[in-house]
Amino acid sequence: MIKVIFIDEHDSSKQNGIGTYRDTLVPRLGRRDGMEVTMISLNSDWDNLKIEKRDYGYEYSLPRVAMGDWRGSGDVIWPLISMYIPDGEEIVFMFNHSPSADFIRAMKGYYPKSKTVFVIHDQGWCASLMGDARLLEKVLRHKAAKGVPENVAADVRSYCEQERDIYGLVDRVVCLSDSTERVLRDEYGLAEPKLVRIENGYETSRRGYLTRTAARERLRLRPDDEVLLFVARPARHKGIEPLLKALPQLVRQRPYLKCVLAGSPAGFSHYWNLAGKVASNVIMAGYQSPAEMREWYAAADVGVLSSYTEQCSYAALEMMSSGITIVTSDGNGLRDMFTDGEDALVVPVGNVMNQTPYAARLAEAIDRALMLSPDCRRAMSVKARKVLRTCYSAEFMSDSYATLFGELISDSR
Known about the structure:
globular, alpha/beta
């Protein structure tokens, strides 16, 4: 019996792709023969340790320790967990948050027989350098990187060292895209067998989607509204700025255009000065449940993925599943998921330090997407769904992790 222990941080997973990843993968692993799954939920909403039976196994919900500093509290958390879960050669820990080297090191003191897997959902350099691996190469070699202040470069180098510490501690490092795999090989010196690539997976069924007309009625959109949908955290590297800069150009020709921002309204408000002139064309949808997001996907005309950097975007997978027409950047990670003119319209980011040309190209691509014939849109969505089924299915992801865990346990015997 393989015993998988999934380490989750409750607060952050509520608002980012790790939560979707967790909810997609963990139940599927828990249903597999010969596998038991336990989830350790850190910084939960409970005041005391709470153990609950779930459909996939057991969840151990831990209260906040040291004002939420779970990374520095391994000496408190692991003695408690070890009272309930004994060490064993059949155990595989899955870690999903960085930086966490000290936390992993503390775990290994209580679970020396276990195996450890670290999944890279993001790297520290990506946001600071807007996903430009060429800038990373210069920074790590202490070369001049145009547009990168020395304090930012120093922070990037420091964070990379923390990540190297994590990668050295664990048995396997899972990355989610070809872009990240190249960086890990070239800049971090990782190679097989430690380095493994398993893309994120998503449910391929289209159950739960309304018709376009029904969804628009539910959301009080007019039939002639042209609806763009942006689904992301309101962070600069997610490409919110070039999207908002593109809107005035689009609205001049398309007065009924609506740009829906799904995510934290408070976070998006930091960029409101960019949308002021077209504020009436922007809809702050806020946080949405999966069922609510399916309504927006059904109602929208174009999904926009303007990020400078992703690992393996769940918003992208959701858009593939929904059948929406996709406009995406060729940023880090996203360039590995789409083919221009086949399953999406792909917009070159260009110089990450100069948003204006990128915003203009983004506006042109969105305009082209809105002008596509129904047959062209349908053909692109069919190809996108085929890519989802063949490369990014939830079942394939689950099978790949099960194979990895089996290999790790076999090696330890």
